[in-house]
Give the backbone structure.
Amino acid sequence: MSITIDGKELEFTPGQTVYEVAKANGIYIPVLCHHEQLKPVGACRVCVVEVEKARSLIASCAMPAENAMVVHTNTERVLQARKLAVELLMTQGHHNCITCESSGDCVLQDLAYSLGVESPRFPEPAEVKAFEQANEMIVRDMNKCVLCGLCVRACNEIQVNQVLDYTGRGPTAAVGPAFGLLYENSECVFCGECVRVCPVGALFEKQGRFQGRASDLEKVRTTCAYCGVGCQMDINVKNGKIVKITTPREDAPAPNYGSLCIKGRFGYDFEGHADRLTTPLIRKNGELKEASWDEAILYIADKLNTIKQESGPDSIAGLASARVTNEENYLFQKFLRAVIGTNNVDHCARL
Amino acid sequence: MTNSIDDLGESDCFLITGTNTTENHPVIATFIKRAVTQKGAKLILVDPRNIDLAKYATVWLRQKPGTDIAWINGMMNVIITEGLADEKFIAERTENFDALKETVSKYTPEYVEKISGIPAEDLKTAARLYAGAGAAAIVYAMGITQHITGTDNVKSCANLAMLTGNIGRPGTGVNPLRGQNNVQGACDMACLPGNLPAYKKVGEAADRKPFEDAWGVTLPEKPGLTIPKILEGAGKGTVKALYVMGENPMMSDPDITHVAKALKNLDLLVVQDIFLNETTEFADVVLPTASWAEKDGTYTNTERRVQLIRTAVDAPGRSKPDWEVITMLANKLGAGWKYETAWDILTEINKVTASYGGITYDRLKKNSLQWPCPNTEHPGTPILHTAAFTRGKGLFSVCEHIPADELPDDEYPFLMTTGRILYQYHTATMSRRSKGLVSRTPEAFVELNPADAAKLGVSQGDRLEIASRRGAIEVVADVSDRCDEGVVFIPFHYSEAAVNRLTNPVIDPVANIPEYKVSAVKIKRVA
Ligand code: SF4
Ligand code: SF4
Ligand code: SF4
């Protein structure tokens, strides 16, 4: 089976869409309401292409590839249609990039720029909506919502949390929890999948607000510190501080493919907490007092030596941790076995 | 897990028991919910609580806590009686089937109903669903292991999988979900009293030899003490020094009044952690360490997948990664260790730990790997036991139902079970310092059935005192149908209402796991 896109003859497997075949072969077609983990709906018209012998332009994300189909992704007609689609999206609400958290990491901003939208030909709506920021984690700015429905589909199809839905029609159309509830008062479990897939700045992380945007942030790929699923995530850092935790919008790796839960996505702020220990402490006269590393290590080494001499190595025991790294656990048991000389080492696997 | 998380998407049928997956392993739950809602997979849920997954269950069996061997034997009874067992698999891959058959013969659905409260017909439906599926996966967690019969509960799950040939293929398996991020790794790395890395035995000279050569020492051969025995030793004075790295036994261990006495009795208690906690109150020395975002290393997840963590920000003040602290101390005691980075340690692990042989830093930078992965050409192992079991043939174990150690009586009429909730984590030293998480569940609570609440004259939000033979705590009433009548649930995250003041310190004789899932309590309103 083969299809021709922009003059290139390409093999495909039945069931692939035109968009998927193009993407697999490095041909760029922009998408906005489409996401690789979600069923295509072909609503935003940004991914339109010209198919020979078809009368109208076709949404490539929802169009199955057919044998001998000839597709053009870049004709003037296509570009004008895309531009119109983008201008309509832009003027559904208010896109004030100046203070938007997504500036520099926004599908709509990229499209408007690359298609050369000088100034949209339609007026913006009069109404300005208030932000929803009642909860501590997710802010919703529905002025920037382009009604792509990705959040609704991600909540239902990826996380299967069934919180979000479409409400209203035409000018009152919106997305959100049933009955117009706030996230806070709905069944939302704050997994943040909706924030991850939102292509614009309509949903963003509250604690990261005004702390840094795409161009200021360094992303460090790591593994979640909480449960045994081991989700992969990116710590976003600016000036040596954690600004937020994100996951890639597309092409996210196993085991979680971009999904997280509330702990992984929003439970990071213990890291910079004022309660963190910053110095070794030794108990003197019943109170823990600041000490240097040299003092503390010497103190422990002396005590361990004495106890080992007087009572033997098996009077010493260690509890390792299911929270620290393999390397640390390996060294810990090696320390007890090879340096102290006891097998008294355990951890809370059972608890 | 014998299988992989990805692999859950291939299952036609899940048997889920003793795991509140949507709260404790939320992202794994998404794989299960998708398979059920989008691919038509069947879900058998066996859980005393009406957890979220019950919404998705084809059949939900609500057993009395502490009766798992009975209902699993009952399912096997139905499978054998109705000719649904995988005879080819049993003949080729297992042994001791006759003994199993003999034992489960008395666990008729009617007999099991009396013990577990599961209606006989529901048990039959579940048995037929599980045995009839093309690929069925068993998924469990601490609800299976935290019982005096924990070891036998686990063996019973394995029996059921072997009986139906549901192991070693995509979408099947016996899949324990490990609670903490690196429980799997801590076990692999032998932070266990009887093991050397990769599950070698300290008691076997041949197993010790390679480590003695690599480390240049003679190793002790007597297996060491498990946590409950260490604390017992501390109480008796035979254990004099305890070094605690990143743990909080004053919250996580059963009967903490007792734990406190043991810790006070030590000559030396060293605690290495990122925060002061309930245990540091007894410490002689506290050492500040780097958090997960401030150091390099690897974690091994519940599906044996080894993944990197990387330094993103600096550790506060003088705190250091745990591995640096241990190295300093070892060298003060004359060890002469030369680790400069975490990756130097990983390189040593690659050399001495067969199953991690090919899991090198250079490869992990590109992608994660699942052990066993013996060399750098090996792609890793997503599914275990595809052709044979580790011991060769799979052994059917004979397990009999034994009642929980402490059941409700007139004085302590409620059965209390404990666990975690979505919004908090373990002893909560991290999660209760996170704004978002705290905002969701600021306070300790008890889940109580409306009928019980009515009997006690309790309404939603009332303050209650929950007492066992060992202690008492105060919590807020959460009245809902999540618990059955006579059963209450309390999460163990809250130090001001530490549920482990109440729990029964009896342990499974083999694995030494405390019976957190069953203790008897009484309840009264606090004025
Ligand atoms: S945070 Fe998760 S549960 Fe809540 S609305 Fe978004 S996707 Fe749905
Ligand atoms: S909130 Fe974001 S993801 Fe949801 S419909 Fe609006 S723009 Fe799309
Ligand atoms: S994000 Fe949630 S599910 Fe994933 S590893 Fe962290 S705690 Fe577990």
Remarks:
- The first helix of chain A runs from residue 18 to 24.
- Chain A touches chain B through 110 residues (CB under 8 Å).
